[in-house]
Design a protein that fits this description.
about 15% helix, SH3 type barrels, Fumarylacetoacetate hydrolase, domain 2, five-stranded mixed β-sheet, about 290 residues, 2 domains
Length: about 290
Amino acid sequence: MKLITFTESASTRVGLLDGDEIVDLQAAAGDAPSEMTAFLEAGEAALAVARAALEAGGARLALGDVRLESPVLRPPKILAVGLNYADHVAESGMDTPKHPMIFNKQSTAVHAPYEPFHLPRVSPALDYEGELAFVIGKRCRHVPRERATEVIAGYTICNDVSVRDWQLRVPTFTMGKSFDTHCPLGPAIVTPDEIPDPHSLDLRTWVNGEPRQSSNTKHLIFDCFTLVEHLSTAFSLEPGDVISTGTPSGVGAVMKPPKFLKAGDVVKIAIDRLGEIENAVIEEPESTTRIG
């Protein structure tokens, strides 16, 4: 199944993506949770309701009549991995990490899969990173690698948008990775039954139609299951947590000369079986200045 969050008639709720149609779970089953984190927390009971609604074929909306939101509107945690493809390590001129290089993106960075993200007022060094991400479906701790599949709700696409000068001016990446709108996610959480092997998926990124990244998740240094084991050693993972697994080579910052994003550019990221996300770049609007 392809779990989504969508907005229609000023109502935001959980549904299923089925081709060019949306299965409206609230219409099909009024007791289904309308928010994704609550839906995931409900576990197998909620998934059973979703499967029944999908098979029933009713309560459908046209995809063109809704706005797709980030599948998880406010993830409890967004955790990401640096230098997790050998070719990206090489282009960065860094040493291969002996352990996963974990950093966080603030949950306020999360963004819809087809909405524009911001070129910050404070920096021109805006970059893209196409990544496979996965979403946690069960609260867990100390999960051995061989049981990691039990706690993964599904897989999605992330653009780990990065403000390079802010990222690299201090040893921690949080500021440069967490600007508002800088974590487009989606279009759906694709459940594991549709992804036989998350480590054999082609990943591609384009900027204005120009190919920039082309790789396969088989080249991950630390794969999804290893990351679950590693992270859950230190802290609990919770339903709705997003883990973005790192980007392959081809980012704009290492090109000669660098090709940073500018207003008007369009970034498209596609991953096998997961679909694609596409976001334009716009100048950060004055409306982002607010107190209260």
